[in-house]
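Methods — Computational structure assignment.
A single polypeptide chain was analysed. Its primary sequence is given first, followed by the predicted tertiary structure written as structure tokens.
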Amino acid sequence: MTPVEWPLRLIPRRPPTFLEGLAVSLLAVAVAVLVRGVLVGWPQTLGLSGTYFPAIMVATVYGGVRWGWATLAAALALGLANPAGFPQGVYAPGLYVAFALSGAVTVTVAGALRHVLLHLEQARRAQEITQEALDRSEARLRLAQDAGGVGLWDWDVATGDGIWSPTLHRNLGLDPVRDANVRSLLDMVHPEDREKVRQGNITAVKEGRMDPIEYRVIWPDGSIHWLLSRGEMLRDDEGTIVRAVGVNIDVTERRMAFEQVRESEARFRALADSAPVLLWVSKTDGQREFVNQAYAAFLGATDEQSLRFDWRERLHPEDLPRIMDEQVAGEAARELFTLEARYSTVEGAWRWIRSFSQPRYGPQGDFIGFIGIAFDVTDAKQAETDLKRINELLAETVQAALAERDEAEAALRHAQKLEAVGQLTGGVAHDFNNLLTVIIGALDLIQRHPADAERRERMIDAALGAARRGERLTGQLLAFSRRQALTPQAVVVDDLLADAEPLLRRAVGEAVSLTVAPAAPGAVAMIDTAQFEAAVMNLVVNARDAVASGGSIRLETGVCDLAEGEAAEIPAGAYVRVVVHDTGVGMDEATIARVFDPFFTTKEIGKGTGLGLSQVYGFARQSGGGVAIDSALGKGASVRLYLPRSAAAPVEAERVATGVARGPALRILLVEDDAEVGDLVAMMLEDLNHRVFRADGAPAFARFMASGQAIDLLITDLIMPGDKTGVDLARDAVKARPGLPVILSSGYTGEALASADGAPWPLLRKPYAADELAQAILGVMAGEASPTSG
């Protein structure tokens, strides 16, 4: 402890109270008296003594000048109280005055000392505060550098030595103790980039200007990283370049992303060029902007020539007028259209080419041209001709005709497989374009006539209706592909049919008789109730369309046990069987073989999507059961739906509340990679009086969680870009903040469905309305939502 530090220990951090000062003064006097008694004897304890001066000094330094005077006064009082305490032969009044003057000097000097010490303490504290602020500022700078991967460097042009920041050492994969100089940096630069960096340094020294440069470095572990270097050359008073300062930024992720995009484009080009069909992409004016090698090879031209080639030069004269009319009509409609005609090859041979052109749209939904595919169907055309000739000559050359027919049928099947891609695209585009026409038209009318309330309500109802039809169509597609997330519950099948019977009767109408005959009392199945009701509705509506006026439909249930192999594609086990019989026209074997194919329908165009029985099939298989059909032309049809029986206790049907239920205002973190969907959901949540925080993916989510911001609920999309799903994010959030409520959301779960099935959080299916979102929030905050709700 230094000579200055020990008096500082006597000075309290705050001014002493009256009682504290009094106590110190009395204690100092008491110690002085005690010391006098020990030194001169207890009979002479009271009296003037030099032992009072340290007491006066201590009281002054601790409590201030006033307590120094108080202590001096107490000493003088004690001296008067014991006149015998003065030494023999000493003039008492003179000694008393001398003591008082000495005490006054002691108080004055001690007070000045206290004042100096207080100023020293204040200066020391100010220095500590300044140093702390400087340390915090440097820490923030280091944090910013680390977060942005910005490394600072400073090197002497003459010696090549310099200073590297810790972040720059990290960008180079080096330990911070490594010497910093230009030679060390050049040693780490990739051999292919080393000369470029060296020449850049030479140019900077000569011209006094350092241009930005990107180059690769090789870390000690062998990994390669990209750095962006920016710097400035500094001159002395005489204009000579003496130093260079700048930054190195790690741009590895950006370069990797660039390389991935370039690799993706190259992969697309390789795939397109390896395809045995003609592929092209056109702009709005019809000009080609991409063709594959098969396209150019058919024309016998280069890629550049193929982009400008006029196909009318190769069209057969008999097909030219028809093709021109069909092409103009197809492009004007901006829908999928097909052309088929004869085209001349570069050798002059005529080949039948069938093409499919599909409109394409930009990120903003604006039309930007067509993408097309074409393939040679000459063999299929020839196969059809050959089949006719074979049939005519069948009686004369049976063996030869059969072999030729098999070959022709194989060629025809190959052509049909290629055509299936176009048919599937056309079916989806047709239905969704109809729905989008209603939605876009309704929104356009609302925008044009915002003040017309009656028109606005009608248009809103029309748009919502079209959107719901699109939702059902998407659900049917997902159900067929077994990608739809189901919500299985243990339910009594007969009870579900009893609840659905009024709706089924309204769907059938009065012209057809509907009989409902439940015969599986108490039989429980673990199924999604909404998908079950949709499946039964599809079967009943199909039956209604198949029977004539006055016909009948019978819907019955029962229980059965299937043996192994008893029903095709249905495993052995105990089932609840739901059967729909009709007295309609029936189906032949060829129709039965395709009846579950998506988009296959025997109805007129516009009367059905061909997805009804696909949904039934997908629902049954995803529920662990199956479906079978018995039918013949003119004898009606029976469709049997098999659902595995369950021993679980049935649950009561859930009643959906109407209206938007508002709960308490919450702080909600919304993780959604689709910006438009995120904006819409955020507006829904804000309309429900919640405060919304946004994160557009896993990195943004991690940054938000690291910020420490308090939240009450996490809503995350199930499918995320990158290697993490919404389930992974939810697990990270709950691990960091135990007990945090979570809602998963998705319209198409894909491969992430398995992890979502095992997750302890509810799944809210897209699309959903504000009231469904509000109900999901109320349920999860109340702890009532089951892990499979949706």
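Note: The first strand starts at residue 150 and ends at 156.
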